[in-house]
TrEMBL record:
Domain of life, source organism: Bacteria
Pfam family, one: HAD_2
GO MF annotation list: hydrolase activity; protein tyrosine kinase activity
Source species of the chain: Methylovorus glucosotrophus (strain SIP3-4)
UniProt keyword annotation of Mitochondrion present: no
Record GO cellular component, one term: cytosol
Keywords: Hydrolase
The name this protein goes by in its record: Haloacid dehalogenase domain protein hydrolase
Keyword check for Methyltransferase: no
SUPFAM superfamilies in the cross-refs: HAD-like
Length: 214
């Protein structure tokens, strides 16, 4: 493999505390009681989709106000609470020696870049992509991954997408890419999201070693 595209939340970083804290603050500011518990399973989908799930409705004005409050809190302070899963940085350092690494995430591009700067990870990645990196924003990960592959003229047989959710695997398959599911993040083993033909790794070192051998 020459090109490795990583999902971000649940794959490289644990944003659960930072994101859920900013969701709680947004709903508090507007005096709205969440319709469901603020748990880690909410992490991953695009912002407006997640806010609709938490609010329990899709009123456009309410969701827009909540989104603004969330962004203000998360982009200024919340993102700083992001933590890194164990052994991720050594894995990135090892892979970056002989592979081209990219980020492809549902997270908005602005906080994504702030997090990478905060962690000092800029040198590991060739480029960082999000749904709203593109203008207009692309609708889903499958389209985003396809755009990444096309933008860099990647050979699909030499490119892998790595993530922690069913959506990530489906995005890889939609673009005829190899996929590796990581199980150290938000994946619920009982969810049925893991498909039998996908690679699966529970340790970053094992993932790095498998990629290097290919």
């Amino acid at each position: 493999m020459k090109n490795i595209i990583f999902d971000l939340d649940g794959t490289l970083i644990d944003s659960s505390s930072s994101i859920l804290g900013s969701f709680a603050e947004a709903f508090r500011q507007h005096g709205i009681e969440p319709a469901r518990p603020l748990t880690a399973e909410l992490i991953g989908p695009p912002l407006m989709q997640t806010l609709a799930m938490i609010a329990g409705h899709d009123d456009a004005d309410t969701l827009a106000a909540l989104a603004q409050a969330f962004k203000q809190h998360y982009d200024s302070e919340g993102y700083k609470l992001t933590t890194v899963f164990p052994d991720i940085e050594p894995m990135l350092a090892l892979l970056a020696r002989d592979h081209k690494l990219y980020i492809g995430t549902n997270k908005r591009i602005y906080p994504t870049r702030r997090i990478l700067d905060h962690l000092g990870w800029g040198a590991y990645f060739q480029e960082v992509y999000a749904l709203d990196y593109f203008h207009p924003a692309v609708p889903n990960k499958a389209t985003m991954v396809g755009n990444i592959v096309a933008a860099h003229g990647m050979n699909k047989t030499e490119t892998m997408y790595i993530g922690d959710r069913l959506e990530d695997g489906m995005a890889a398959e939609a673009n005829q890419l190899a996929f590796a599911m990581v199980t150290w993040g938000y994946l619920d083993p009982a969810s049925g999201d893991m498909q039998a033909h996908w690679l699966s790794f529970d340790q970053p070192q094992a993932l790095a070693e498998a990629i290097i051998k290919q």
